[in-house]
Amino acid sequence: MHAIRILSFAILFAALVEGDNIAHSDPAKATSVVLAPVTSVGNANKELRNLEILIEEGISLLPKTQVIGANAAAKATRKAKRPELRTCDGDTQCLKNLGALLNASYVVYGEVSDLGDAHVVYLKSVDVRSGDEVRSTTLKLSKGSNRKKESKAAAARLLAPDLYVGTLKVQSTVAGAAVFLDGHKIGTTPSPPVSVYVGSHAMRVTHPEHSDYVRFVDVRFEEETVVDAELLGLPGLDQKLKAEGVLGGTNADNLIVNHRPTPWYLRWYTITGGVAAVALTSAVLASGGSSFSADLIRDL
What we know:
Immunoglobulin-like; 3 domains; 300 residues; 4-stranded antiparallel sheet; 9 helices; alpha/beta; 6-stranded mixed sheet
């Protein structure tokens, strides 16, 4: 048993030393990821090897991640005399055994297909401990694309989705406006850059004295999206406030110009006389009509 452990350690050490395209970092803090040999139908071995190098580079750019490249994995399977692990073809159990052989946390498998002039790589990750498929994604590589950035984005989606973000910065001439993204408040203007998941989001900037600014914004991976939110005054509000003397100053001239005379039916003497008449009529009705007439004749 002791001899088997020593042999396994020797195989792993040899694979790490002889393997190329391995991003080294502190093993105590790093997550170890094995890239299984990429498979394809109709692509040359050299082309596949270039794609493997690109995928390995994308994974290595993730923080605290150690990559064991496809070449190193293939050499380890040969030394361990486990040829069945060289061609897993996406089989989850086979990929789990490959990761266990190299003492890794995750295994990434890729299958390439062509779409016109572009390469489309289907990727999936397998948790070595549980043997479960964790996530899957697609890496699309065209002639005009930033291949390194696209590879890192695919690695983030696959292994660290919390890192698949960009930043959003909202600017406005109106300070103190509330900024909502997908229904959740993320700050007020002026808003500092905020980390946001990549994709399309519904944004609303609102202020009680202005009309809402509503837009869909697209956030790209590791890019800053700047939005200039133009908040307009509510229609007719300024005119109404000016007409009432609230805007344009509060001096005496403004108050005189904007003051409207009180209608006669709302003046104090009209209201007082009306109240007295109502009281007199109530007293007459309460005392009875006959006594009122006699008293009135006698007084006359």
